[in-house]
Specification:
Elements: E1 2-6, H1 10-16, E2 26-31, H2 35-45, H3 53-58, E3 64-67, H4 74-83, E4 87-90, H5 98-110, E5 115-117, H6 125-135, E6 142-150, H7 172-178, H8 180-184, H9 186-196, E7 199-207, E8 226-233, E9 238-244, E10 253-257, E11 260-264, E12 274-278, H10 281-286, H11 290-294, H12 296-299, E13 307-308, H13 330-343, H14 349-361, H15 369-383, E14 390-392, H16 405-408, H17 414-418, H18 422-426, H19 428-434
Parallel strand pairs: 1-2, 1-3, 3-4, 4-5, 6-9
Antiparallel strand pairs: 6-10, 7-8, 7-14, 8-9, 10-11, 11-12, 12-13
């Protein structure tokens, strides 16, 4: 598959971290309206430069345009690429207006082109593992989800000093002006909608809490930096998602069933550890004890938190396990290793590869247009809820997604994590007597 990038800003370097794992993808060239930035990318990575967007779109080699421009430019670039006969993969959100997003999908359909979009963590090992556990009924019937997307107090993080490995500044103004919900709620929504189908009801609240996060003026200056959404899914599951630029970093997810729960620490990490807990009288009662709740080494002996699962591995699992070609210094390699191990690891090229694989095999995209439009609507409903809150029924929907075949055929031993711990078995009778 032959692709070209439009936009060489901060996120471009994140895409490049896993490029080495995709020899089947040829990058024909890149374009950025900032010529100096484009030249930096050219010198560092060696990609050919297009002098303008028109030249890129006229290149007959290019099959897919990757739209990494600012959110305000998403519609124009995507529209022009589709009308030029190119497939498009765009960063999230597709646009910040549902009608405009729907218009783009109509254009794609009229030109028989594919419009796909981030986030691609739907294809991660962590989600594949969670999906398989839930679909197999290992936690019983799923009933409740708690999802966090807190990205630290922005006013203390010196966002205006953050740079990518090749010197691109972090787009803090856009992040803060668009808001934490528009920028990041998709990482959880894509998982939950894939697992549980469309949401039929949204009760949400959003509010601006902390001013002066950066020295530069913002427009608007008061985009909500907190949102809380309660989603009612068609299959009966209830979910609460919190997003903020105010609370300390927390990207965790818990899915609670009537027989157990599955949890993971970091939705930003494609190989985040996943834990399966089988509920028992012992583990549930032990949570009453402060030490058992707060000391994992103690709590896990009573079954609290469950056992760590072997992850389902997919066709490109190795991509996030190392980095090549972005930074070359020993310092960069050390920082990269620490980041992958401790902070986050995302394979952003994977979404492009999955798109290309579906096209080559002549099958529908896993994230179909209706699915992506539903994500877009939910995001905007939560973002725009305001401080008075609102309860609404989404106007979009989609057909539930089946567990992909390669997820289902992988067979880690989930039963091992369900077995009661030694201490849990030994004290079951004691706990029973204490409850009388």
């Amino acid at each position: 598959m032959k692709i070209a990038f439009v936009g060489c800003g901060y996120v471009f370097d994140i895409y490049m971290r896993t490029r080495w794992a995709y020899p089947e993808i040829e990058i024909c060239g890149v374009f950025d309206r900032d010529a100096k930035r484009a030249e930096v990318v050219h010198r560092h990575y060696g990609f050919p430069l297009y002098p303008d967007l028109e030249t890129l779109l006229a290149d007959p080699r290019v099959e897919v345009v990757i739209n990494l421009t600012s959110i305000a430019s998403h519609f124009e670039v995507t529209q022009r690429a589709l009308e030029a006969g190119k497939h498009v993969y765009t960063e999230k959100p597709i646009t910040t207006d549902l009608a405009t997003t729907q218009e783009l999908f109509a254009i794609a359909k009229a030109h028989d082109r594919i419009l796909a979009a981030a986030p691609c963590n739907l294809y991660s090992d962590a989600l594949a593992t969670v999906w398989k556990v839930v679909k197999e009924g290992t936690i019983g019937r799923p009933v409740l989800v708690y999802a966090e997307m807190d990205d630290s107090p922005a006013h203390l993080m010196h966002l205006d000093s953050v740079r990518s490995p090749t010197g691109a500044p972090f787009p803090y103004a856009e992040e803060l002006q668009e808001g934490c919900t528009v920028e990041h709620i998709g990482y959880h929504l894509v998982w939950l909608c894939a697992l549980f189908g469309p949401a039929i009801g949204v009760t949400a609240f959003s509010k601006f809490l902390v001013p002066d996060k950066v020295a530069a003026p913002l427009s608007p200056p008061d985009t909500p930096d907190l949102s809380v959404a309660c989603l009612d899914f068609a299959n009966g599951v209830a979910a609460r998602i919190t997003c903020s630029w105010v609370a300390p970093r927390d990207h965790s997810l818990r899915i609670i069933g009537d027989a157990g729960q599955i949890s993971l620490d970091n939705a930003f990490h494609d190989q985040s550890p996943v834990f399966l807990e089988r509920f028992s009288r012992v583990s549930l009662s032990a949570r009453k004890a402060y030490t058992a709740r707060t000391q994992p080494l103690v709590g896990r002996r009573f079954g609290i938190g469950g056992g760590r699962l072997d992850l389902v591995r997919r066709w490109k699992s190795h991509a996030v396990e190392q980095e090549r070609g972005v930074g070359r210094s020993p310092k960069h390699r050390l920082v990269s290793w620490l980041r992958r191990r401790e902070v986050y690891a995302q394979d952003k090229i994977l979404g492009i590869a999955e798109m290309g694989k579906a096209i080559a095999e002549g099958r529908p995209q896993l994230m179909a247009p209706d699915f992506l439009m539903h994500l877009n609507e939910l995001t905007l409903l939560v973002q725009g809820a305001g401080s008075e809150g609102r309860t609404v029924k989404p106007t979009t929907s989609f057909a539930p997604i089946d567990l992909p075949a390669d997820f289902a055929t992988t067979q880690p031993d989930f039963q091992k994590a369900q077995r009661p711990k030694f201490l849990e078995r030994r004290i079951a009778g004691v706990v029973g007597r204490m409850q009388r």
